[in-house]
Amino acid sequence: MEVRSSRFRAKLSFYRDRGITVFKTLSGKKLTIDDLRVAREPALVERGENDEGLIIAFTGLDDRLFLRVYEFFDTTKSLGYSRILLRDKYRLWYQHGIDARRPDFPSLIAYLESEIAALKPQKVMCLGTSSAGLVAIAAGHALGADYVHAFAPQTFVDTSLATIRKSRYKRSHLRLRFSRRASGEPLDLVPRLKVSNGKTRYFLHYCAASRRDEEHAQRLAGLPGVVLMAYPCSAHAIGIFLAKKDFLRQTLDFANQENLVESSRAAFGDGIRISDAYSPQPLV
Prior knowledge:
Elements: H1 2-26, E1 43-46, E2 50-58, H2 69-74, E3 81-86, H3 105-119, E4 123-129, H4 131-143, E5 147-151, H5 161-166, H6 170-177, H7 189-194, E6 201-207, H8 211-218, E7 226-231, H9 238-244, H10 248-252, H11 260-268, E8 273-276
Parallel strand pairs: 2-3, 2-4, 4-5, 5-6, 6-7
Antiparallel strand pairs: 1-3, 7-8
């Protein structure tokens, strides 16, 4: 009963936030990322004043980043980075792309490459939450991003009928199972990450007491560039935990990336468990 109640509240929150966002859009207001409760457009690109970094954010199946979009980005707003916000319109782990012009994962990657070339950032970061965490990792690898932050990410998508029957997103899983556009490799990160791109560092953030998130994260343990960061919490929504602990800003600050492991140990002490296998290898 408690699980059902929690899911009902989550659905209610989503529909409320989406309704407010749609109402603001219909009223004629041009919404920026800092105005959005949920992602609305397939892609929203904003050039920042600080060319040090570009953040590419993949929203999940609920069009958010655990937190509302503006809440998540509020931590980095003052840093002035360029930002690209993406929406999984079809709720298929971005395997059908984001719209008719970018109808699959390869075309989405090509689009992002063109935007990176236009924005000319010094560094690139991909991030995503839950289902979109998997996509952020796959995209970061394909783009040769400098950093990826995946919050409680899936590391594979099981489309077996047994899993579909238990899924909260039965329709999405079923469509993905029979999709001709979905490619197998992005849906299981292990084969992809076994071949290092020689550059990207992948930070996987999750609650140590969340068994499902722990199992997904551990599948990538020891792979080139992967850093597992297990925090002293139990919820799936690790982004909310990090925001409450005032650590989300440090996590997304480009200036802090090379010292993030040390910063997290200073902030959480013995409460955090870190597995760092950062040793990029040349492409083979």
